[in-house]
Specification:
By secondary structure, the chain is an all-alpha fold. It is about 25% helix and about 0% strand.
């Protein structure tokens, strides 16, 4: 799906996007990014959002999942124990 990125004026809470690539298109998904106002006060029609602990820097980022593979103790000590467990399960099905 092609993307059209434009800065457009907002007049009375309305905006208009015009682009030749939209000719013949009957529907499009629109995502609007509203810049934060300068200063600490939120706009009058929006409540201030409390930053999360991660945004505040209280929590370190989680490690990549690839670093976790094999890092924890498994259920079996040896590959032979895994084979014996699987054999026992198969024997239960018979």
């Amino acid at each position: 799906m092609p993307t059209i990125r434009q800065r457009v004026p907002v007049v009375d809470g309305r905006l208009e996007v015009s682009d030749p690539a939209l000719r013949g298109v009957t529907e499009a998904e629109v995502v609007v990014t509203v810049p934060e106002p300068a200063g600490d006060d939120p706009p009058p029609d929006r409540e201030a959002q409390t930053p999360t602990a991660e945004e505040e820097g209280a929590l370190p980022p989680p490690p990549p999942l690839t670093e976790m593979i094999g890092a924890a103790k498994g259920l079996f000590e040896t590959p032979e124990e895994v084979d014996a467990y699987i054999r026992a399960l198969r024997n239960e099905w018979d």
